[in-house]
Amino acid sequence: MGFASAGLKATVSVALLGMLIGCAAPGARDDSRRQTVEHSLTPRVEIAGQPAMQWNVYERMRRYRVPTMAVAVIEGGRVVWSATYGIDGSARLPAANERFQAASLSKGVTGGLAAILAARRVIDLDAPVDRCLAPLSLPRGKQDAEHPVTLRNLLQHTSGATVNGFDGYAPGEPVPTPEQVVRGETPAKSPAVVIATAPGSAYAYSGGGYTVAQIAMSHCAGASFADLMQREVLMPAGMRRSSFAQPLPASIPHAVGHAADGEPVPGGANTYPELAAAGLWTTPDDLARWLIGVRDAEEGRPSFMPTDAARTMLAPGMNKYGLGVFVSGDGEHRRFMHSGGNLGFKSSYVMFLASGNGVVVLTDGDNGSYLGGEFIKAVAAAYGWPDYAPRVATRATLDEKTMARYMGHYRFEDADSRGNRDLSLFRGGARWFLDLPDIGRTELVPTSALAFVAPETGYTVTVDDDGGLRVGSRVARKTQD
Description:
Blueprint: H1 2-38, E1 45-47, H2 57-64, E2 68-75, E3 78-86, E4 91-92, E5 100-101, H3 106-119, H4 151-155, H5 178-183, H6 207-221, H7 225-234, H8 275-278, E6 281-282, H9 284-298, H10 307-313, E7 326-328, E8 335-342, E9 345-352, E10 358-363, H11 368-382, E11 391-393, H12 400-404, E12 408-413, E13 420-428, E14 431-436, E15 440-448, E16 451-453, E17 460-463, E18 469-471, E19 474-478
Parallel strand pairs: 1-11
Antiparallel strand pairs: 2-3, 2-10, 3-4, 5-6, 7-8, 8-9, 9-10, 12-13, 12-19, 13-14, 14-15, 15-16, 16-17, 17-18, 18-19
Helix pairs in contact: 1-11, 2-11, 3-6, 3-7, 3-10, 9-10
């Protein structure tokens, strides 16, 4: 009897030990994968036949002059770890509570709000938006009775509205109302929003359109936009460290934005009255809660938003854009995502709907989009995602003599249509480089007789028939040296 009891005790002890090991294993595994991510940042393009380059997170923060990066990694619909990294080599686990400007990531939260209000019949996504704008009225443009401006086409960037994005207002500058922004009235610095193409006929990214939607939702719901967000989204989603207050009160800890050269933004951050387009202050853990909540709702699980609202939000229109989010892929590849950039802040997220895997990256530097892209690829590799592997290019022989005629200084229109950018193509010994206005020198690898790729940024550089350079999708024209 005593022998049998001892054997039973031993069996129970082994079973308990196994249970404890099983419980501890996920944490150990996540810690191991976190360290793998931190030491496995790679360029956007790998060169066939060459060893893959890898850096640690701090090397890339110094390369891009980004002082702080805060991240959250999601697996199976839960946050498995979050961290705040400092350019000085520091790390805080979990991520700190300081808020970052999420910039255009705000659009997805706005789209979610609109879907929730529509599910409750507070707003009608497909009715002419004019009825919710009074006393504001949209200037006449390409809209008509058969092709009205609606909340749905405003939020899907198919309303024909102009004004791509906004520069914000420095501390001490007068800040316009959203109505003044739409009208282009002083003290607004952006032009008036107009309906330049027939609603529903084309996709054109428009922060101006989101500002129209901001006014409409506020008027129809009878509350300020920030209060609506707090009541309908932020608090129900558990985003207790997020706010659409612009400017954010000084008593709330928040990151300071930094320009491409690493210098702080004067006053720490600009103010954006265009809340729907660019006004969210948040943390990576808070934003991860929102991503998880949207996925839970779409799957029919308990969430802060109704299932029909999530499905409305995630239904892609033109250019695979839903209500405030890009929606791409099928099956295990299906995901929603967005990136954003305010002065001194760059951010991004992606959430896979089938697996519940995702990541949030918030940075306080204008070069943070480069850093964030590399970090997301590192997460994808460590966690076995089906997407986000680096592209592979093959090195080729360059026509050096012809290409030498293209060396020099160039200028191209910036992608967000808010200014020109200068760059240079030059050679250093046997190597070729592109000198960019934000990150400076980046090496080029020839991929044909008259073409390059920049592994670090992913940019392709080809010769244009008119004597310019095509950098990605943009044509740069040569300027006088």
